[in-house]
Amino acid sequence: MTIERRIARADFTLTRDYPAPVERVWTAFADEEEKLSWWGAGDAIEHRDWAFDFRVGGRDVAEGKFHDGPVSRYVATYTNIVEHVRIVTTYDMWLDGVHMSTSVASLEFEPIEDGTRFTHTEHGVFFDQFWADGPNREVGSRGLLEALGRYLS
According to CATH, what is the number of the domain 7-44+83-152? Predict the structure, then answer.
């Protein structure tokens, strides 16, 4: 099988208002135990590897095997953290050991009258056979924000 060598780009922004103060939403990202409570695919995945180092230059790793499916690996580096304001990461994704994408994600936390406005903006580059996967990344990110909402309520 010949792999088509090309790249595609996908950009998206997701905004959610959570009925929790900025400090609470921030802690869901900044505290390892809290992040473990909502991050990932829940029962749909067998967790294999996890690392959490929330600081500029620190790395997060999340790897797991979907039941009867592929192994997904996420490795992120924190490039900018301003407490209660923003988190910026670069991250790479692998599927069954094949490097599928590199992304830059910015997470912004804004106080609003009823809680926190959270904005996730992402710019991704998808490689080779994964060039059409951009829309799936947005769907996956929406799922994470829904899981965060359930966790916060």
Answer: 3.30.530.20
